[in-house]
Amino acid sequence: MARPQPISLWRSIFWELTRNLLLATAVLVTVIAFSATIKPLADGRLAPFEALKFLLLAIPPMLAYALPFAGCFASTLVYHRLSSDNEFVAAAAGGVSHRSLLVPAAVLGLILFGGMLALNAQIIPRFLVTMQNMITEDVAKLLATRINRGQSVELRKLIVFADRAQPIELEPGSEARTALVLARPTVIECDDLGNVVSEGTAGRATLWVFPESSTADSGPTTRVAMRFEDFASKDIKTGLVTGKTLPVSITVPSSLSDDPKFLRSDELRELRTEPKRMSWIDIRRRRLADELALRRALDDMSRSLAAAGSFTLLDAAGRQVVVRAASIKPGNNRTWNILPKNGANVEIDLLRTEGNGLSRTGGVRHLAQSVVLAPDTSDDRPAGEMALRLELRDVASAPLNDGSATESTKRERFSIAGLLAPKDQLSALLKMGTFPLLVESVPSEKDVNVAMRAGDLRNMIDYLQNEITSRQQERLAVAASCLVMMLTGAVTALRFSRSLPLTVYLWSFFPALVCVITISGGQQFVRSSGWIGLPLLWAGVAALAIYTFWTYLIVRKH
After folding, report:
1. In terms of Cα–Cα distance, which of 142, 141, 70, 80 is closest to 112?
2. Dihedral of alpha carbons 120, 121, 127, 130, sign
3. At 186, phi and psi to the nearest 5?
4. Which of 66, 69, 62 minimizes the C-alpha distance to 33?
């Protein structure tokens, strides 16, 4: 006949555990949430009333840190009291084993495990987004606070300093959300590698922040526009350049769209298959698409030169630019030299649009001794399309009239910018996902520039995959630690039933602390090194489980 289970004893222990767990969690989570509120409040990102709201919003995310220790503390207190009052001795005399006495702790631990999985999967990321929005949504306020404290502001490739920043009223009908005036700003421009390209000063600058927008490709972004007045800039390579105004428009990706910790578990799984949601991935994807489109356009031009002795481009107005030459050869720094036939000049005809067609009459012919083809990276290039630029040197230009050139005008240098290839390669490439685009780039990776862009994209994808893995495993390990810590506190209390409660808790607290530290350290190791870091991430949980089982075996013997 099976021995009846101590249901009443289980129920009593379970409710005592629950009561102590709720009390310990309330204290711990409030303290941790308050500590998370201190820094943004001290930095001026939060007003006093906003700080209270921020603290309340921080409570669910901080449960990930509070619940494991609260569970350990609650089980330690309850089981230590029961064992010090000899209630477990009486239960053992009645035939109730120690394993049976641990059932309430195991049940509550499983509830915490499931609850923490749900919190990490859906609830905590949502609250983190709301918290982040509170301290970043008012970009103008954040910029003004940093500038007035003498700190720099980084906007993409620009580093901006100013004596002070002051909000101003918007003009009627303005689409901007807020505006600032910067007094005596200093601007430093850097390249992609962080090297200083130019530095300049202005008497005054006006900064506008436009509402956040979102697209399927780039995710949430905020546009910041600036206009510098009485601007003087010193280019590191070319010297001093002055101008009355310098307009700047910068699109800044939202930090919420660039950090996987703000994503729910289902969004993390989707991100693994299509990583372009991260702007730092999408930027590299677009660079690869640009390079592939350029490579294909160059191949088309070379074939056209070999077959017909000329190739055609289109300018911003849709007019044809016909280039007659012998061949195209690679130059330096992503430029290509267009070589003339038999040492003569390169002929470039700019044909005029007439009605629905083109006319040579009214067009212009340029005869250049040397022509360089390069990507057009100017701000006024056609948006969303691959643009090219022709740099002509020692140029003789004349109008076309019945095929003959007259009234020649000579110039040392001349540029034709904003040119498009007749066949749009870029649009189709940009519509591809990240992984199909990488597959598409493989045949073209004999070109060093394509190979460099593709390699950079693959490296960033590998980093993102490691980041996703680290976040997923971290969330699972934190949930598992709740179950293990609950049992750790219970068996430790049974083992040290004659010791003071604080001493007993320390015996369970320090192993639990090591567990949390290894989870955090392992998450960072997995992010940087991949799957090889998983043993470290799980080592703390595994070691705590082994310690708990070893302690249970000691308790069971007695």
Report:
1. 70
2. positive
3. -120, 135
4. 62
pLDDT tens, 473-488? 999 999 999 999 999 9
Which DSSP symbol is given to 210?
Answer: P
Q: How far apart are CA 374 and CA 19, in angstroms?
A: 71
CA distance 275 to 354: 47
Return d(Cα 449, Cα 293) in angstroms, integer: 12
**Cα distance between residue 324 and residue 327, in whole Å:** 9
405's tokens = 């050139």
Quick one: CA dihedral 252, 256, 257, 261, positive or negative? positive
Sequence-separated (6 or more) residues with CB below 8 Å from residue 290: 375, 386, 426
Q: Beta strand 404-405 with 388-401: parallel, antiparallel or unpaired? A: antiparallel
Nearest to 429 by CA among 459, 389, 457: 457
The secondary structure element, H or E, covering residue 71 is: helix 48-84
pLDDT digits (tens, 9 = 90+) for 261-285: 888 999 999 999 989 888 788 888 9
Ramachandran assignment for 341, one of left (phi > 0), alpha (psi -120 to 50 degrees), beta (any other)? beta
Q: State the Rg of the chain over Cα.
A: 34
Residue 424: CB atoms within 10 Å: 14
The one-letter amino acid code at 551 reads T
Q: Could you count the other beta carbons within 10 Å of the beta carbon of residue 245?
A: 12
Distance (Å) of CA 44 to CA 38, 57, 88, 135, 143: 10, 18, 54, 9, 11
